[in-house]
Amino acid sequence: MSNDEGNMSDDPTAHLFAALERGDSGLAYEFEGERLTWADLDARARSYAQALADAGIAKGERVVVYAQTCLELIISLFGNYYLGAVHVPVNNRYREAELAHILADCQPSAIICDREGESVMAGALAQAGLTRAPVRVGIGDGAVGAGFATLLDSSPDQAPPRPGARDPALMIYTSGTTGPSKGALLSHAQVINNMRALTGLWTWSSRDRLVLALPLFHVHGLCIGVHGAAIHGMAVLLERRFDVAAVIERFGEHERGRASVFMGVPTMYTSLVEHLRSNPAAAAKLACGRMFTSGSAALSADLWHEFAALTGQRIIERYGMTETLITLSNPYVGVRIAGTVGQPVPGCDAAVIDDAGDELPPGEPGELIVHSNGLMDGYWNLPQQTAATRVIDRDGRFWFRTGDVAYVGDQGYFHIVGRKSVDIIKSGGFKISAREIEEVLAGHPIVHEVAVVGVPDEKWGQKIVACVVPDAPMAGILDDPGQLLESLVALHRALLADYKQPRGLYLCDELPRNALGKLQKHRLLEAIERDGLNAEL
Ligand code: MLC
Ligand code: AMP
């Protein structure tokens, strides 16, 4: 029986903490040979909470976590919840400036960082100018601060209270079209209610086992993966990073210990399919799974059909956003339609509107707006930007403007067509701001003007291309665009995360603009399709 089938109070947190509080002896996490039961996880999370409370961290304060996937990330999440602190997971690929912005913005009271992240963290702290020195906790030998393992020696005097349902749980940083990333503040009720609705629709239960190879700093891996699994007391087979062979090895004949559920971004399915084409034995292993889901970017109908032909698995595609959590999904029981993101998840609603804000009939594309039981409280310290995302209907309900273009198709299933703004790129399931990359590349001495676009790509969804108007004198550079691309990449690598790096270069004499001088990126995309790229990685 899954936790949410039992007799449970109306407090949503009771569902999230059920397996922990009961001290279940079943497997909670398996990671690189180490196994934690729910009882182990609970004891460690409580010790962690006690140790941080003893160090002076109070309810509502932010704890930044910057590390590769490991069990300590899971312990710190539940520990922060017991403490009443806000868990702020940060992409461990971020470089100094990206991290410094987050530190300065959220002013954390504590920082958990692994050894691999130390040097970037040191540089970011030097830039951030925090008003109060944060408590430092290090994961792994030689990391700065108290060793994470020593936190687990504390023994709490009494059981810590569960956090309040309306208390903030997570602050997840996400890119916008302009300016630096913003912290989306989500309460416990928002996360738990949305995840209960979604995973209920997907029929998750304690009998399932989830292979979790997604990063733990985004909604996909963290909210659906970690919270969804805890709600159902479902074991998680955690991977440090996505690896095709490792994922396949988790599946197989229905014996104890095998995985039943996999969640991935479309790029992961492309990699799996490339491998499965020549490996029928691997396909047979995945055929034993119960459920494969996809989200964070568009999954092509061709890929859906090929995966189904190879494994017999009909991927459940769903749609979401950091700010709203998961609002649309194909069902587990019922019709799944390839190339669609299904219908509203229970507790959510969706509509397509035109520029005047009027709802459009089925078949007509427009902006997707969603109503969600997981709608964030707002962006941290940005009330105006929060207000700009909202529409209030006649019944006083809040709707969120997603910026995605969609239409309603057959049987009321939603199709995502693209984004309203070309300045947001999705590559490998990561959201990337074109402006942020343009600002960095503009600092290259040979760049007179630059525009960054996302070019459609079968594997990555979109591939980042820098369109550059070179500064005079151009001689020499134009003869070797590959070298120019490499030097742009070198500049980029020092300042921004690797997945934001340009993979292609398009040289032009000027950037296309309309009569008012507004940049027309769609014309650049047409030109690239027509002329091809000058250099590619
Ligand atoms: C990496 N490479 C890329 C690339 N990223 N090439 C083109 N475009 C990109 N974006 C190249 C590298 O240079 C390298 O090349 C090779 O691919 C492998 O790099 P890697 O970094 O090792 O890749 P890998 O670890 O396999 O990463 C791929 C991935 C990762 C799909 C596992 O991108 C990932 O974890 N994505 C998930 C993001 C996510 O969780 N999004 C959720 C957001 S929440 P070479 O030549 O060196 O081999 C959200 C809401 C919702 O969106 O609805 O879920
Ligand atoms: P993020 O801000 O990283 O949470 O990304 C949210 C964005 O991911 C959405 O606004 C969409 O553009 C995109 N997205 C998520 N799921 C899907 C999907 N199934 N199909 C297409 N786009 C998706």
UniProtKB/TrEMBL annotation:
The domain of life is Bacteria
Q: Which SUPFAM superfamilies match?
A: Acetyl-CoA synthetase-like
Keyword list (alphabetical) reads: Ligase
Enzyme class, top EC level, equals ligase
**The keyword Ligase is annotated on this UniProt entry:** yes
As for family, the record states: Belongs to the ATP-dependent AMP-binding enzyme family.
The name of this protein is Long-chain-fatty-acid--CoA ligase
Organism, per UniProt? Enhygromyxa salina
Taxonomic classification: Bacteria, Pseudomonadati, Myxococcota, Polyangia, Nannocystales
- Could you tell me the gene encoding this protein? lcfB_5
